[in-house]
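Weekly modeling sync, notes
Attendees: S.R. (lead), two postdocs, one rotation student

Agenda item 3: backlog of single-chain predictions. S.R. asked that every request posted to the team notebook include the full sequence so nobody has to chase files. The rotation student volunteered to paste the first one in as an example of the format we agreed on. Action items at the bottom.

Example entry:
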Amino acid sequence: MGTEDLNRRMTHALEIPERESDYQRRIIDLAKTCGWRVMHIRDAPTRSGGYATPVTADGKGWPDLTLCRGADLLFIEVKAAKGKLSEAQERWLDALAATGAEVFVCRPSDWDLIQARLTAPRSLAQEQAA
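Predicted structure, as returned to the notebook:
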């Protein structure tokens, strides 16, 4: 499937979801269609009736999605239109970006950007080396 066909398929008369979970699902679906491996840690129910991500050590604030394809590694924090980063999320995103990794905070208004990145045939690192 060509990039143009894929873009048409992913955008045909669909509105970008406003709920964070729906938007995240859309990003995951596109990534998998484009051959990315995707890791997401889902929240688990707590005894108090809420939800929390079961992580240890410095895991709090880890980005929602970790994607890899070939030499590419992306970290994506998904937010609703007005969602704000927590301090822990900001620390992780800054630390990951400092390694040279590609780090994104994606809101529904960023769909064109993330769609272009996930459908790109070559890594940015490969393009810069060429």
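Discussion: group reviewed the output briefly. The beta strands are 37-39, 44-45, 51-52, 65-69, 72-78, 102-106.
Action items: rotation student to repeat for the remaining queue; S.R. to check formatting next week.
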